[in-house]
Design goal:
16 helices, Rossmann fold, 528 residues, eleven-stranded mixed beta sheet
Length: 528
Amino acid sequence: MPILNWIGKEKVVSHHLDVPYRVLNHKYGFIDGKQCKEETGSGNMIIHGDNLEALKALLPKYEGKVKCIYIDPPYNTGNESWAYNDNVNDPKIKKWLGETVGKEGEDLSRHDKWLCMMYPRLRLLHKLLRDDGVIFVSIDDNESSNIKMVLDEIFGSKNFIQQIIWKNKYGPGAMTRGFGNIHEYIFCYSKNPITSIEANLSDDEMAKYKLKDEYYSTRGGYITQPLATKSKDDRPNLVYSITHNGVAIWPDKQWIWSKERMQNAYEKGWLQINEKNGKYSVRFKQYLYNEDGQMRKAKPISILTGPYNQDGTSEMVNLFDKKIFDNPKPTLLIEYLLSMIINGEEDEEGIYLDSFAGSGTTAHAVLNLNKEDGGNRKFILVELGDYADSITAERTKRVMTGYGDTEGTGGAFDFYDLGMPLFKDKENLNEDVGEEKIREYVWYTETQAPLQLQKTKNKYFLGSHNATDYYFYYEQPKVTTLDYVFLETLEKQAESYIIYADQCTLPEQYMLEHGITFKKIPRDISQI
């Protein structure tokens, strides 16, 4: 597989490991249409801060938990300003970081800088994605070839699903000279290879279901599809006759349905049988809704015509009564992407992440989908801009409560910013972050799972995992010692123990015989 190299790559390949782990500070909650001080417990989050540090802060709770990621990063057109530029401490990197980003022509330092910004963020997004998850990345021609190679490297070329072409404008505009650029791209990758993918029907596809019968009130209109096939491998059990008006009808080669399914459809009137010049054709009625009342899905297509950029702008004007954000993505586009079904599994409870949140379109799309089908999807947005509260969060509030003639979706979320780092330096804990945050972090580094509230008399007990009990014996004002006295406080017998403390006086042989592992605070606390 070809590998893309650029100036500074060697400094950012593992840069995500050097990013300080910061705690999240809760600023306010929003529930029942009102702002509150307490956390809502909704699972919906908007985080104000650099997305590299925010993604790192999400790892203890969300690594391997995110169902779908959509990002709309800076397109690096040369005619825009963007704030993400990691400080890579190398003379040649400092040189091009200090230069003015070129606005015309092929300025390679501009592309190097963009790639250094994107690479560590994509590495963290990959860690957060579920094993059955997918990521969508919007981009245009400026970086499309570069992002394809980086995504191949991080997610694996075998997990490439599609490079969607999105016609994002009605036309080129009167002032266009030469080719009119009216498209962007949306790259789609999975964390692991997928076997199938489905999406909602487009308006044009739904319009095709215009035939009606006695089932119209419950199943909508229908189209017809052939039941005989010549293309499939030979299946003797699919070669049989069906009787219609006393005539035995045989397929040219074989049917696509079993005899039992065919007979059931015939009895219910779900077949359409026509005769011409003594030859019969058998087609089945494909309804818009299945027998459970769910709308039919379709195979997603690689070229999308609309919704358009103008639709996204109109949405923002309807929300805020004025134009306050440039080039927001239309909500219907994000709804279409997020509603795709992977490997036959529809996930109405999943977590949907957008780490370049902008105006908050992804939250808007998630809330609309939940209202439409009664789902309980969660969103996590990260936005660096000063407008994270005034636009991103404010839009989400208005979508929940309603705006103009649009009914509110309901819902709640919590707003955070980035707090202090957990470690002051390579060797010392930052005790100002609080014991609760430290405990959560330690548990995650040991188990890669979020810490659950434990009902126990021993306040140092973290939990049990894989037959091992974990204890974090920590008291900020004093030195803690793992000794026989502390062992007497353990409440139950486990196969093994991992115990954090400031020091240990137990003999090594005793710990070996009883399955006890001592870890020194803070030396042995892993730094993710």
